[in-house]
Amino acid sequence: MSAMSATTVYDVIVVGGGPVGLAAGYEIAKAEKSVLVLEQSNFFNQAGSSNDMGRMFRTMYTEDFMADLAYHAMEIWHELEKDAGTSLQLMSGLLNFGDKDYGGDSPEGTLMGPVPNLERLKMEYKKLSAEQIEKRYPFKNLPKDWIGLFAPDNGIINVQLLLRTLSRLAKDYGASTQQYVEVKKLVPVSELDEQIWRVEAVESGSTQVVYKAKKIVITSGAYVNHVLSPSFNFSLDLDIWEMVASYFSVNAGPSGTVFPSMWFQFCPDNGGRSQLFYGFPALEWGPPNVADSPKGQVVKSRSNFSLEEQGHGSSVRRSYSTL
Hints:
Layout: E1 9-15, H1 19-30, E2 35-39, E3 54-57, H2 64-84, E4 89-90, E5 94-98, H3 114-120, E6 126-129, H4 130-136, E7 147-151, E8 155-158, H5 159-172, E9 176-179, E10 181-191, E11 194-203, E12 207-218, H6 225-232, E13 240-249, E14 262-266, E15 277-279, E16 290-300, E17 317-322
Parallel strand pairs: 1-2, 1-12, 2-9, 5-14
Antiparallel strand pairs: 3-8, 4-8, 5-7, 6-7, 10-11, 11-12, 13-16, 13-17, 14-15
Helix pairs in contact: 1-5
């Protein structure tokens, strides 16, 4: 559904058409409010943090608030899948393994940190020895004192199906969407004795357009300061991570390298280089017998960020997300 005329005043305009923005549009439209979702690129693009084939949904968090958020999100995922009539996740479980004493100041918490939250929320988990891990996974020569935590209530999100499902459902409930619209500035204005927002934007790189709304939701991820700075004269202090993924061929059989679930390794730095790694099994909706292992690093810690500033290699996949 395309946008209405510039005289239309929407209940809500959502800036950013990734999974969070489309989910916001879906929920707002389902609440019978008028909503317009604006995306600066095309929908389902590869320029943000929602590209590639899969993302982790996990409940094993050290922080209480993250564990609570994930726990309550499980029911919302079930409701969304019922509405969509399709499964959007593969609940493979998650194996966290490594040095039980590592962590504290790592971006992923600690290996054993999730245990109190799993017990508090009465969620299933199992401790594994290094020997048990090697029997189930193709990891070799693990230090004998390493341990693992496996929890089944974790899964892999089918990102591309999720994006298209949210877009379809949002439109089914009456949401409007518009791609190739880059929001330049949000301006509060008074119109007919009502305070609303004037959304100044550029469509398709050259055409000046204006939209109006009673409320604004900003879901533009790593690009959020491109909206905040000109609109409100402040910026968020963001760490922007470049995520580079490697892909590996896996083969079935007695000597195969099949990963039965997602995994995350906790290990101290080696020579100043992080040894935090995670990976996915081969996905039923992806190329056969190919496993994915992303690796991240902070590439920008400032108010504004441009994708063009980063080199793009031909043999890897990069995505950008914020912490």
